[in-house]
Amino acid sequence: MQTMHRVFFDDSARLSFLSDESVHLVVTSPPYPMIEMWDGAFSDRNPFIRDALSEQDGDAAFELMHEGLDRVWRELFRVLCRGGIACINIGDATRTMGDRFKLYPNHARILHACHNIGFEVLPCIIWRKTTNAPTKFMGSGMLPAGAYVTLEHEYILILRKGGKRSFITEEDKHRRRESAIFWEERNRWFSDIWDVKGVSQNIENASSRARSAAFPFELAYRLIQMYSVREDTVLDPFLGTGVTAVAAIASGRNSVGVEIDDKMESLIRQNISSAKAIGNACIVQRIQEHADFISLYTGDKGHTKHQNSVYGFPVVTSQEREIRFYLVDFIAYSEESTKHAASYYPLENQLRLSTSMQSVISNAIPRSE
Ligand SMILES: C[S@@+](CC[C@H](N)C(=O)[O-])C[C@H]1O[C@@H](n2cnc3c(N)ncnc32)[C@H](O)[C@@H]1O
After folding, report:
1. Which terminus of the chain has a lower count of CB atoms within 10 Å, N or C?
2. Model confidence, pTM
3. 241 lines ligand 1 (CB under 6 A)
4. pLDDT for 244-260, tens place per residue?
5. Which structural domains are found in the chain, ordered by start?
6. R_g of the chain, CA atoms, integer Å
7. Cβ neighbours of residue 360 under 8 Å, at least 6 residues apart?
8. What's phi and psi for 298, nearest 5 deg?
9. Which residues pair with 327 in a beta bridge?
C-alpha cells in the first residue's frame, strides 16, 4: 500500500487544483475570527476588516472575517464526495471592543453558513480544554453582576454533504471493514465531550509566527479513524504545522494540505518526516489499550463472542473481526511537487519479522482459545 501527501501553499478560498467530489473527509481548524492573533492575517486579505477593528466595530469585523471563511466552506462543499464529512475545529472568541466586552460566537456563525451552503449539520463534539491559569476569570471578580464565565472548550463541528456515504464495490466494503475501530474506542470517541490535552504552541524559532495554533495529533487521528477508510483522501484547507497530514499518514489515508503561509514549509516537512515514528507508536498503543480493555472485559464477562480473524485476538463485536493495521515503512519526499509518498506493510508481516513487535503484541493480547 502507498499513500500520497500533497501540500499547496495557496489560498484555500480557491481550490482549483482539486476536482469536484475528489475528497472524502475534511479535518481542519481555521484562523479564529476576533482572536487577536489572527487580526493581521484577516486584515491583509480584506482591508475593510482593519478599518472595522480600528473603529472598534466588533460586529462588522466579525462578519467580514466570516465572509472570508465562507468562501472556503463553499469550496469544501464542492470538493467533498457525496456522503463526505467536514470536521471543523473552532473556538468562540471573547473580546472588549470600545468599552464593551462580549462573545463572538464563531461556531454558531459557521454552522449557520454551512447549513445555508447545503451541508447537513450532525451532532458536534465539545473539546474541553481546562486551564489552571490564575488569571482565567474575567470581570468583576467576586462582586455581582459583572463577572464572565471562562471559555474552556472549543467545538468540533461535524457536517456532511448529502446523505450517508455508500460503499458499493466489494473492494470498498473490504477497505471499510479493515478500517473499523474497536468497540471500546467507539464508546469513547463517539461521545460528545472530549478531554484531549492541547499541545505546546511555541514555534517562535521555526516560523513567521510565535504560536502554532496547532491541534493535537490525537484529535486529527480520531476524526480520520471515525469518518474515513483506508486509502481515502483527507483535506486540510488550513494545514498550519501539518498535523492533519501526519495523522493521515499514520492512518493509511492520502492527504492534501493547503496553507497560505509558505514560511510554514520547513516545519510541515519536519513534522511529516516524524509521521512514521508517531503513527507506528500510535498503533502499538491502540493494541495495548485494547488488550487492557479485553482483560477487564473478559474478567467481568468471562469471554468475548468474537475473534479478530487477522491477529486472533478477542473483540467484542463481529464488526471488528477484520480490523487490520498497516505500519508505515518509509516516507519519501519529492521537492518539485511538494509531495510525500508513504509506503506501508501490514502489521502481521512485522510480527513474522521482528521479535520486539511480536513481544509487544503477544504480551499485550491474550489469544482467545
Ligand atoms: C488555526 S491554524 C491551523 C493549525 C493546524 N490545525 C495545526 O494543527 O497546525 C490556521 C492556519 O490557516 C492558515 N490560513 C489562514 N488563512 C488561510 C487561507 N485563506 N488559505 C490557506 N491557509 C490559510 C494560517 O496561516 C494558519 O496556519
Report:
1. C
2. 0.95
3. yes
4. 999 999 999 999 999 99
5. 9-136+147-269 (3.40.50.150), 278-364 (no CATH)
6. 22
7. 284, 287, 288
8. -75, -30
9. 345
